[in-house]
Amino acid sequence: MSSLPAEKAIYIIGAGGHGRELNSYVRDLQRAGWRGELRGFLDDGITPGAHNGVNVVGPVDCLRDADLAAEPGYITAFGDNRIRRKVVARLGEIYGERLRPWTLIHPSALVGCGSEIGEGTCLAPGAIVTAKTKIGRHAILNVKASVSHDCTVEDFANINPGATICGWVSIGEGAYVGAGGVIKDRINIGPWSVVGAGAVVVRDVPAHATVVGVPARVLERR
User: Fold this and answer.
1) Pairing relation of β-strands 209-212 and 217-221?
2) Which of 19, 115, 131, 154 is the most exposed place for a label (fewest CB within 10 A)?
3) Residue 60, in any domain of the structure
């Protein structure tokens, strides 16, 4: 079991489906002994109040000096990598250093020796990061995703449920690995590329390309 995240007040940015998942993960952390506080959700598209069991405080820019006095943290809840990057940039413009990214590592996730997890990243239930692997900022390792030794996962990447990343793999910024995808060892996945669900990647993937199938082949380049 991983160690518990830093104990502080936090906000979840985005109250959609992924936000409700993060809400559940935070509750699991609290049951495991985390003593931080979930203050609620910030979402531009939902009116303040209770929605689907979560409390929406207001839009992204609603926090005032009193709300920021305790130096709260935040974690984003957007599966779209480009949207997540835009939201992080906007939060920096609004709040600067007064609202800092917070890293969520679920109690059932595993982080091995010598591995690093970047700020604002989420490791969902059953996610595995083995030895000497680096996960960047604001990345997502979803349920039961596995990243093996000596890998690098750059900022804003998204590794979906059940994906398997073998050793010595490099996954570029903003890359998306679909559910159940398999990346062979020593492969480079280019920035902002997409690996389709269930694909088996045995060759390097260019930047901005979409690959699908077994073995994976380029479907398109954006």
Assistant:
1) antiparallel
2) 131
3) yes
DSSP assignment of 52-103 equals TTEEEEE-TT---HHHHTT--EEEE--SSHHHHHHHHHHHHHHHGGGSEE--
Per-residue pLDDT of the chain in tens (222 residues, 90 and over written 9): 456 776 789 999 999 999 999 999 999 999 999 999 999 999 999 999 988 888 999 999 999 999 999 899 999 999 999 999 999 999 999 999 999 999 999 999 999 999 999 999 999 999 999 999 999 999 999 999 999 999 999 999 999 999 999 999 999 999 999 999 999 999 999 999 999 999 999 999 999 999 999 999 998 776
Catalytically active residues, by annotation: 149
Q: Which of 56, 77, 104 lies at the terminal end of a domain, its last residue?
A: 104
118 and 98 together in one domain? no
d(CA 11, CA 85): 17
Give the C-alpha separation, 39 to 175, whole Å.
31
Q: Give the residue numbers spanning the domain of 75.
A: 9-104
